[in-house]
């Protein structure tokens, strides 16, 4: 781990990097009012994700699964990107960052203007039948309808616990990470595999912006503790000077 002023060092690394890959997690969105999973006020305090966000939930507790995602869809319609999302969008348009691979399903990076976003844990904008994969619409899902093709239950295209990540996005992320000079990790506990392995496909520097330490900190080069929006704003000011 590097010593010295971490913020200034990170600014230097961002300036010098030819290819920066940004990895984000739920902590990127808490300043927009979206709870994360593992913080004190996160989802884990109210729900057991294994019960509501798993393949087993569709089979065994569809009503709970449906209610959970119905509420998430409605809640996420009300939130907006914050300053940190906007800065990442500006950095992409200026060529400072190359792509964002996110665990988030909240679309806030895209709403802020980022184009190169890989949603490795899927999205809640599109839906399908959990049995035959026939595409479905949001209205049908929200209304609790069944698949018109086979009568199966409908689901959003999120990656549930126990499911594979979208293969093409995963392959591209690993390829880009392996060529990156800098992996900038923001707002994730790095608990979820295989997402938490992406930094280690890179021989470049690995820096973390997070509120608290993660289990993998000893394998990173730099940590900046604080809120994503605030730290990104400070970095942005430093980069302008
Ligand atoms: P996590 O809840 O496990 O970890 C979030 C981390 O972010 C924590 O270490 C926390 O200290 C930190 N954090 C919280 N607020 C922060 C802030 N303002 N600035 C910087 N750091 C902050 O989340 P995870 O690692 O993303 O993994 C959990 C899973 O949850 C993922 O699979 C993801 O798909 C899903 N999820 C997504 C959303 C969303 O789309 N916004 C929300 C909750 C959970």
In a nutshell, what does this entry contain?
With 241 residues, the protein is α/β, with parallel strands linked by helices.
Structure description:
The structure is a single chain. The protein is α/β, with parallel strands linked by helices and 241 residues long. The chain has 2 domains: 1-34 and 81-121 and 166-241, Rossmann fold (3-Layer(aba) Sandwich); 35-78 and 126-158, SIR2/SIRT2 'Small Domain' (2-Layer Sandwich). Helix content is 34%, strand content 17%. It has a 6-stranded parallel β-sheet, sandwiched between helices. The chain has a 3-stranded antiparallel β-sheet with strand order 5-4-6. Helix 1 crosses helix 9 and helix 5 (83-93) packs across helix 9. The model has no long low-confidence stretch (mean pLDDT 94). Nicotinamide-adenine-dinucleotide binds at residues 25-27, 29-31, 34, 36-39, 42-43, 103-106, 121, 187-189, 191-192, 210-212, 227-228.
Strand content: 15-25%
Mean pLDDT across all amino acids: 94
Small-molecule binders here are: nicotinamide-adenine-dinucleotide
Q: Structural class, judged by helices and strands? A: alpha/beta
Q: Helix-strand pattern, N to C?
A: HEHHHHEHEEEHEHEEEH
CATH architecture of the largest domain: 3-Layer(aba) Sandwich
CATH class of the largest domain: Alpha Beta
């Amino acid at each position: 781990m590097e010593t010295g002023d971490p913020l200034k060092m990170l600014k230097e690394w961002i300036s010098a990097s030819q290819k920066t890959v940004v990895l984000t997690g739920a902590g990127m969105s808490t300043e927009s009012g979206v709870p994360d999973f593992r913080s004190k006020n996160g989802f884990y305090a109210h729900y057991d994700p294994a019960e509501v966000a798993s393949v087993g939930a569709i089979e065994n507790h569809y009503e709970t699964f449906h209610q959970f995602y119905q509420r998430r869809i409605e809640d996420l319609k009300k939130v907006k990107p914050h300053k940190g999302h906007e800065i990442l969008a500006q950095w992409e348009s200026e060529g400072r960052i190359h792509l964002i691979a996110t665990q988030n399903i909240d679309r806030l990076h895209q709403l802020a203007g980022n184009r190169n976003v890989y949603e490795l844990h899927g999205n809640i904008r599109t839906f399908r039948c959990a049995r035959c994969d026939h595409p479905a619409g949001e209205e049908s899902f929200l209304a609790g309808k069944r698949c018109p093709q086979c009568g199966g239950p409908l689901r959003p295209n999120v990656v549930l616990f126990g499911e594979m990540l979208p293969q093409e996005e995963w392959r591209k992320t690993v390829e880009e990470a392996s060529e990156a000079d800098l992996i900038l990790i923001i707002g994730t506990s790095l608990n979820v595999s295989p997402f938490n392995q992406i930094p280690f496909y890179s021989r470049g520097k690995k820096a973390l912006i997070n509120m608290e330490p993660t289990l993998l900190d000893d394998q990173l080069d730099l940590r900046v503790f604080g809120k994503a929006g605030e730290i990104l704003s400070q970095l942005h000011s430093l980069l302008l000077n």
